[in-house]
Design goal:
5 helices; single chain; mainly alpha; Bromodomain-like; 71% helix
């Protein structure tokens, strides 16, 4: 019984740590690309960051709960990873021209005004970028959105393996 409890705790720490570290890594790469490489994110790029923020919070919650109750934040974290992967697939489809963007902010329109002051007032506060223009890093043939989807899928598969071990151990214990 004690051995199973130790394995349960280890599984919880591994999954919680995976959630926190993978979420931080995803957000730091996105912010680094934005601030250091001066890439302007489109609205869908900003949407893709939200599940990672929630995943960090769920990872912290997973770390503080007992294995019996940590199953619920683990399941919600898996859902966050599914949402992140789904958003990446949707964004890749927009980049490839398979379907239009669902975000109105992605459709950048021309700004018309009578004078310079009126033109400046009509400009958005934050620079906008059309969502169908992919960003490529260092000439790599995959867009950042595609890389984000691959990353989300990798973390999802790893979390599913860890969750299977956790649920098996909790049933045994």
């Amino acid at each position: 019984m004690l051995l199973v409890g130790q394995w349960q705790r280890k599984s919880v720490w591994l999954i919680g740590g995976l959630f926190v570290l993978s979420g931080l890594c995803a957000l730091l790469v996105a912010l680094g690309a934005e601030h250091y490489l001066h890439l302007v994110p489109c609205e869908l790029c900003l949407w893709e960051r939200r599940p990672w923020r929630v995943l960090i919070a769920l990872g912290i919650l997973t770390l503080v709960l007992s294995p019996r109750y940590a199953r619920w934040p683990v399941l919600m974290g898996i859902m966050c990873l599914l949402v992140s992967f789904g958003l990446s697939v949707m964004h890749v489809g927009v980049e490839q021209g398979w379907w239009p963007s669902p975000a109105a902010e992605c459709h950048v329109g021309a700004v018309h005004a009578q004078n310079f002051d009126a033109w400046m007032k009509q400009l958005p506060v934050r620079p906008t970028k059309p969502c169908d223009q992919p960003d490529y890093l260092f000439g790599f043939p995959l867009s950042m959105t595609t890389l984000s989807g691959i990353y989300a899928l990798t973390v999802l598969v790893t979390a599913l393996v860890g969750a299977a071990h956790l649920f098996r151990d909790v049933r045994r214990g």
